[in-house]
Design a protein that fits this description.
369 residues, alpha+beta, 2 domains, 6-stranded antiparallel sheet, 11 helices, elongated
Amino acid sequence: MSNFLNRYIKILDWYIIKKYLGTFVFTLSLFLVIIVVFDVSEHLDDFLKSKAPLSAIVFQYYGGYLPYYANILLPLINFLAVIFFTAKMANQTEIVPILSGKVSFNRFLRPYFISSGVIFIVFFFGNVYFIPYTNQLSVKYANTYTNDTDPTLKQLHMQLDKHTFVYLESYDNVVHSGYNFMMEKFDGDVIKEKLTAPRITYDSLKRTWSLLDVQVRYVNGLKEQFLQIPRKDTTLDMRPSDFEANNDINTNIYRAIPTKELAKRIEKEKIRGTGRLVELRLEMFRRYVYPFSAFVLTLIGVSISSRKVRGGIGLPLGIGILLCFLYIVIDRFANVFSLKANLPPIIAVFIPNLLFGLTGLYLLRKAPK
């Protein structure tokens, strides 16, 4: 392994990699410390009011809060770190002798992309595996100590399979009980069975639904059969978590779903049609596509900061901050268009990286050679 590294990674590469990753880690740590200081000052009264123990605040609230925001800020901090240390190298006339020594600009980019590859790997596995787990900590803390929102959901429609449709007038997420339940089974466009119950409750031990005062009507052409059952226990292809996903009490609810379970919910949602398919697919695609911003923003950062300019690093850093805000705005607009204007989610998540990738290629052509 050491022979491989010594063969392909030279002294210049190690010099830039250490600067890159060192600046990135320092900047990320600084941002997280600032976030914690401001958040504590803003929510101190809430912590005291909720009477949450210190362990819950540290390991649940901040244990989920900090990784989530680090994940959001990671590509932008990466971008600013690249601009900062590259502009500093250019200002100290370190890049000119490198390019004058028969080192092509593409060769000069190699350590940058090695470093951004490391960040991409951390970013990718964090997005797919680690962040959903830490977001569960945030959701657990919010539901336990700060959630004062009405947990009752109204007017719920769901399709369990190709032939079965259910309706709930209301559902209580706290006691896992629904009211005025109705289930209809169809054969094509013809109804075959209609079941109603004033209350339905989920038994988490048996993993079954208990229906009280059930009324069932079977339809077979012109013949009908009517039954009344005091209590009926049955297994249905729905869980309390399906209704929690429809609840907007916590905005991190989709981000707290493990990736494998998220894929299963997408497949179920295609059948059920509860109106959450776009949000679920956006979350899934973002987990896999968003990490590629590490390469895109690195390319732009090197291209705009590798030239020595008057005024030192101020101008490149200012341009970098402006581009950071522009990236966020484009990303948010793409999400809104996907949610409200039927833009396919896969296109929405690719738009920021695609636009900035083309910008990076243009700036690369204009960069000093």
